[in-house]
Design a protein that fits this description.
The protein contains 10 helices and 13 strands. It is α/β, with parallel strands linked by helices. The strands form 4 sheets. Strands 2-1-3-4-5-10 form a 6-stranded parallel sheet, sandwiched between helices. Strands 11-8-13 form a 3-stranded mixed sheet. Strands 6-9 form a two-stranded parallel sheet.
Amino acid sequence: MQKGMEKKMNRSDKIYVAGHRGLVGSAIVRSLREKGYTNIIGRTHKELNLTSQQEVTDFFVKERPDVVVLAAAKVGGINANNTAPAEFAYENLQIQCNVIKCCHDYGVKKLLFLGSTCIYPKMAPQPIPENALLTGPLEETNEAYAVAKIAGLEMCKFFKRQYGDDFISCMPTNLYGPYDNYDLQESHVMPAMIRKFHDAKVNGAGSVELWGTGTPLREFLYVDDMADACVFLLENYDGEQHVNIGTGKEVTIKELAETVKRVVGFEGDIVWNSEMPDGTPRKLTDVTKLHNLGWTHKIELEEGVQLAYGWFKENVQAARL
């Protein structure tokens, strides 16, 4: 019998969310709880090192989860990816290999693996359809992370194809919201801007320096919308191809900066350092597949930035700075 294909999720399933305290995982936990799932488990890195095959195996033997969401990964912005590519490749491959194989070995009925739209080719067609994966060279600044994540997506596909495992994958666009990483050495563009404008406002600075030219186009999805889409896919999707999760809307980095500046209430100037890299010129997901399945986003950019900044202000002592 093909494992998992006839089985639907139910509210009492034991659901293991790997990375449950991060930006993505914590939002998925919130969404699952809101929808009535009561048996959700997580482990901190101290409690379970996902790069250790033995520790992961021991965990699955003991806990026997019914459903697994693999939201744990080593992630970071351009600077982090550029300076530590070996760690990004090795750690992400280890995490994925250990968790995906255990999901197969211990009869998990549903696995959701999270990729990221930064693993599409640098010059992919825009908006980016799911079938653009592996059709061209990657963006050099996050190549190591991308190669590892592609391996995870493909592994889920191969386990489904060979064994009938109900392993699905999704590809979220740029995410932001509660529990984001605000460390300027590692953070992505949205939390970096929130932190920079907030610090400048608090310190009475006259200007904020941002990287690049401000011209690249990006799409941003509030993380609670992403989580809602993930639970929707867990409940309604069992296809082999990964599914893009996004808004299908884009803004320039300059427009984003003006929005964050306005929400934070910083009244100084923005200085663009064009000596620093811009990254991919445009990155917009084609969300036709997700829309056709019956899901669309609810939170628009300005409201999302207000929610994210509100969380940051309340949690500035506990936030990852």
